[in-house]
Specification:
This protein is mainly β and 123 residues long. The chain contains 2 helices and 6 strands, in the order ββββββαα. β3 and β4 form a beta hairpin. A 5-stranded mixed barrel has the order 1-3-4-6-5. The chain has one domain: Beta Barrel (OB fold (Dihydrolipoamide Acetyltransferase, E2P)). The longest helix is centred in the C-terminal third of the chain and has 6 residues. The protein is globular, with a radius of gyration of 16 Å.
């Protein structure tokens, strides 16, 4: 498990990828070093609802899992992709005054949702 605290820079709408899979991407700015970093996260399935009370500019703490997968293009080129799957998202002011909630089990990431031969990646 990894955690990052930062301010929300981008908060995209939930995308319904298939009938049974949805995701919501958001960007958190990490100002903990000399050079701020904008980090892209995704929340999937029921975890997308954890962003409903979050707004751009809010300071949040994100608990996430690092996911990676191999993908072979139709031309036979092998590429590797990483994703940061958020499974708990708490506003910083809420985290300071409340006991941490029980984290839900991490949902399946998009990598596990792809069927064999599904090469419809957006890159």
């Amino acid at each position: 498990m990894y955690q990052l605290t930062g301010s929300v820079k981008v908060l995209n709408d939930t995308q319904q990828i298939t009938d049974s899979f949805k995701k919501r991407e958001f960007v958190v700015t990490d100002n903990s070093s000399q050079y701020p970093q904008d980090i892209l996260f995704q929340a999937v399935q029921a975890n997308t609802d954890k962003l409903n009370d979050i707004q751009v500019g809010d300071t949040i703490t994100v608990s996430f899992n690092l996911r990676g997968r191999e993908w072979t293009s139709p031309q036979g080129e092998v590429k590797y992709f990483n994703s940061l799957d958020a499974w708990n998202i708490v506003k910083a002011d809420a985290a300071a005054g409340a006991a941490p909630s029980q984290p839900s089990a991490p949902s399946a990431s998009p990598e596990t949702q792809l069927e064999e031969g599904d090469d419809d990646l957006p890159f």
